[in-house]
Each structure stands twice: as structure tokens, then as C-alpha cells.
């Protein structure tokens, strides 16, 4: 690591393990009677709070909310808007689940410089960043003249 800022952002193995466990627990609560595709998210705020979200489907499919956006909305409703990391868990076989376009844009709303972990049910994970998921993104800074 090349800077104190990067060091502060790094998660310990126990923090990461706990986030993965919380994401998988949220996934178990998903409401997905139509797709049977459950997704969980565990969002770590800058103050150390973990906020969970799961996908919630609706018979009117367009009203479905993804786990990532569910967690972000709960965080904002609770007064938190600065995030350190998010773990997103799902089961897509040999691949890692990745956020949809709407979720990627929602994540970038709160910065591009935070970590995203993609996890499988067996706790195997890969790490990326918001910036990597949505390069050349449209951010709030683009609205400042």
C-alpha cells in the first residue's frame, strides 16, 4: 500500500469475513418468488456500521429492487452516505455475481473510490472497486460547473 488513505480503507480478514457472512444472511432473506434468484448485500459504512439488503421482487417486475440498492437506501435513510465497502453475494455457479447497471450507477453516486467484493455461497470472493465496475462514469461531479 502506498498511502495512509489506502491503508485506512483496507479491510481486515475478520471484517471481510463478517461482511461476507452478513451478505449471505441477507441473501437468505431475499424475496424472489418469481426468479428464484436470491442476492444479498452487506454495506460497510465509514463509521463501521453494517447495513444489509436483499433483492425484493414484485409481480410488476419493474418494481423489483436489487440487494445493493436496498442496502444503499437503508443506509441513506439511516443518515449514512459514506461507504467503505460492500459485499454482494449470489449463486451463479462458477462465476461471481456482479451488480446490474442500475446498481452500478447507484454505487457511483456515493463515490468511485471504495471496494466491492463479489462473493459465492462458499465464501470465495473477488475484490474490485466501484470505479472498475463503471469506468468513465457519470458522477455528481459532472453536474458541477
UniProtKB/TrEMBL annotation:
Enzyme class, UniProt record, top EC level: hydrolase
Pfam families: dCMP_cyt_deam_1
Cofactor(s) for this UniProt protein: Zn(2+)
Signal peptide limits: none
Active site: 68
Membrane recorded as keyword: no
Binding site for substrate: 55-61
One GO term of the biological process aspect: nucleobase-containing small molecule metabolic process
Binding site for Zn(2+): 66, 100, 103
Domain of life per record: Eukaryota
Catalytic reaction annotation: cytidine + H2O + H(+) = uridine + NH4(+); 2'-deoxycytidine + H2O + H(+) = 2'-deoxyuridine + NH4(+)
Gene Ontology CC annotations of this record: cytosol
Protein's job: This enzyme scavenges exogenous and endogenous cytidine and 2'-deoxycytidine for UMP synthesis.
UniProt record similarity statement: Belongs to the cytidine and deoxycytidylate deaminase family.
PANTHER family membership: CYTIDINE DEAMINASE (PTHR11644:SF2)
Protein name listed in UniProt: Cytidine deaminase
Source organism (scientific name): Meganyctiphanes norvegica
Amino acid at each position: 500500500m502506498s498511502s495512509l488513505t489506502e491503508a485506512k480503507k483496507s479491510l481486515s480478514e475478520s471484517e471481510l469475513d463478517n461482511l461476507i457472512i452478513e451478505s449471505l444472511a441477507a441473501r437468505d432473506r431475499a424475496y424472489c418468488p418469481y426468479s428464484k434468484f436470491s442476492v444479498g448485500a452487506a454495506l460497510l459504512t465509514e463509521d463501521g456500521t453494517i447495513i444489509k439488503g436483499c433483492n425484493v421482487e414484485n409481480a410488476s417486475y419493474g418494481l423489483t429492487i436489487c440487494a445493493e440498492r436496498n442496502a444503499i437506501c437503508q443506509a441513506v435513510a439511516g443518515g449514512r452516505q459514506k461507504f467503505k465497502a460492500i459485499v454482494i453475494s449470489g449463486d451463479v455457479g462458477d462465476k461471481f455475481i456482479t451488480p446490474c447497471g442500475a446498481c452500478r450507477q447507484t454505487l457511483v453516486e456515493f463515490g468511485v473510490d471504495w471496494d466491492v467484493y463479489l462473493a459465492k455461497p462458499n465464501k470465495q470472493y473477488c475484490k474490485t472497486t466501484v470505479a472498475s465496475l463503471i469506468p468513465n462514469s457519470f458522477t455528481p461531479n459532472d453536474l458541477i460547473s
